[in-house]
Design a protein that fits this description.
Length: about 290
């Protein structure tokens, strides 16, 4: 049995990951910001070194899954100070604690780091081709990846980085800054207008498929690796919208169509062969089943 901490463990992804890790018999602790009732909950802000230090002084963890961060490109523009403090400084705090307490780290990056690259997104692209990230959220995730890599060189820490592609599923609470499937679903169900950008494609990943693969990292941890975690479907945004309208009964007259959205990656086509090889990545839920 492994002792595991999940920062951001009350979030959309963290909640499902905690459940999956516990189901496998691990002792899983949750860290997040709100007050919460779980007996293995440790309240603390990753951007506060002293708050996190107190946690690690009282617990010795084998693994830390670091999800605690601000999410979303437009959220990162509107609340950039909170984004940079949480994402960059928060990650640096976790790394400093890793250097002191010697746990294995799984860092959650994002497909957004691939920025303006328009080919198939292999992990090696980031090492071989100059990439322009499109927004502060993407930049903060790449900065954090570089911090993780530098710590390995300087302090010989053991870490794995993962780049998540458009995860969706139950438990994502609506706001104007959430993912596209969440936005469309909520607005379609509540007769609210929304905009579909026609010249964008995505690889969507159902949340339980993602969680199973990521939980496997603790069972086959290869220090220094980076993995793309993506789903079965490479689709345009209109396809997702059409399925949501079909299953929600939403009003198609409330949907506006535009060509493209500024400061946003146009195409995200992913190669997950490394995750298939090392982590038994095996997504089973296709887009229509997931949306339904």
């Amino acid at each position: 049995m492994k002792k595991i901490l999940v920062t951001g463990g009350l979030g959309t992804v963290g909640t499902v990951l905690v459940h999956e890790l516990r189901k496998r018999g691990n002792e899983v602790w949750i860290n997040d910001l709100p007050h919460y009732h779980d007996k293995r909950y440790l309240r603390g802000d990753v951007s506060s070194f002293n708050q996190m230090l107190e946690i690690f002084q009282n617990h010795k963890f084998d693994f830390v899954y670091h999800l605690g961060a601000e999410f979303g490109r437009w959220n990162g523009e509107d609340f950039y100070d909170k984004l940079w403090i949480s994402n960059a400084i928060g990650t640096k705090n976790i790394i400093r604690l890793q250097e002191r307490f010697n746990f294995k780290l799984i860092f959650f990056s994002s497909s957004e780091v691939y920025g303006d690259y328009d080919g198939v997104m292999y992990e090696s692209v980031m090492d071989e081709i100059p990439i322009k990230q499109m927004n502060d959220y993407a930049i903060s995730k790449w900065v954090s990846e570089m911090q993780v890599m530098n710590s390995k060189i300087m302090k010989n820490t053991e870490s794995v980085r993962i780049r998540i592609f458009n995860t969706y599923g139950p438990g994502e609470l609506y706001s104007n800054y959430r993912s596209v499937i969440c936005l469309f679903t909520y607005r379609a169900l509540n007769n609210m207008p929304y905009t579909v950008y026609l010249d964008h494609t995505r690889t969507s990943t159902y949340i339980t498929d993602m969680a199973k693969t990521i939980a496997n990292i603790s069972e086959n941890f290869i220090s220094g690796e980076v993995y793309n975690i993506g789903g079965l479907d490479y689709h345009d945004i209109k396809t997702a919208s059409d399925l949501i309208l079909k299953y929600s009964g939403g009003n198609p007259d409330l949907v506006e169509y535009k060509e493209s959205e500024d400061f946003t990656t146009k195409h995200k086509k992913v190669d997950c062969s490394k995750a298939i090889r090392d982590l038994n990545h095996n997504p089973k839920v296709d887009l229509e089943e997931g949306i339904k």
